Amino acid sequence: MSDDLYEGPSRTDKIIAQLKKHPLVPGGMIATCGALGMAFRRLHQRDSTGYQRWLRARVLAQGLTVVAIVFAGVQEFGTGAFMGSAKTGTQAVPSLPPMSPSEKVAFEKRMKEAEEAHDAETRILDQGKPSSSLRADFTPTEPPSKADRDVASPLTQPSPSSSSRFSWLRLWK
User: Fold this and answer.
1) Residue 6 in 3-state DSSP?
2) What is the mean pLDDT of the chain?
3) pLDDT at 146 over 70
4) Coil, helix or strand at residue 88
5) Spatial contact of 55 and 64, defined as CB atoms under 8 Å apart
6) pTM of the entire structure?
7) Would you state the pLDDT for residue 46?
8) Least confident piece of the model among 32-41, 67-76, 87-96
9) Who's near 74: CB < 8 A, 6+ residues apart?
10) Which of 37, 43, 73, 90 is found 20 to 30 A from 58 (Cα to Cα)?
């Protein structure tokens, strides 16, 4: 698109306007990334207390950023956005021009063909399904006996060397 046809603000101008209008959103994003970076630095230094503190700071910054985003949305669209009656903005949505009679006929023909194809596809897919939700050859079995449930499984029994249920994760090595 050439510049002489487009008269609105550029994308950069729109971004700068939004940053000026809602400065807490990018500030919160920067604070979140900074806290996460510091947490990674503390993790690299093996400072677990500092790591936990910076992760808590990240959660706080992220929560405040979400609050800032919601606040900015309420400022832009009003509280009706939460109630289902939000304004759609200052620009009107352009409507399509009315169809000519020949376009209407062609559209209705395509719609009818699509509906027939859908019906045929549905009939083909339904042929492979049983007529009801329960299969006719299904017979319920008895639940496993207590002896069957008490059989030790290597997946459910802890190994003798494990100190907790989650030691198999090996997160601390």
Assistant:
1) coil
2) 77
3) no
4) coil
5) no
6) 0.44
7) 94
8) 87-96
9) 81, 82
10) 73
Amino acid at position 31, single letter: A
Q: For the stretch 22-55, what's the b/e string if a residue is b when 16 or more beta carbons lie within 10 angstroms of its beta carbon?
A: beebeebeebbeebbebbeebeeeeeeeebeebb
Q: Where are the domains of the chain?
A: 22-81
Q: Look up tokens 């169809």; give the residue.
A: 99
* Among 102, 105, 124, CA closest to 113: 105
For residue 45, give the 3-state DSSP assignment.
Answer: coil
Q: Exposed e or buried b for every residue in 146-166, given b needs 16+ CB within 10 A?
A: eeeeeeeeeeeeeeeeeeeee
71 contacts: CB under 8 Å, gap ≥ 6 = 22, 24
Surface-to-core class of residue 11, CB atoms within 10 Å of its CB (0-12 exposed, 13-18 middle, 19+ buried): exposed
Percent of the chain residues topping a pLDDT of 90: 39
What pLDDT sits at residue 171? Answer: 47
**pLDDT tops 50 at residue 172:** no
Give the position of tokens 């929560």.
63
Find the length of the chain.
173
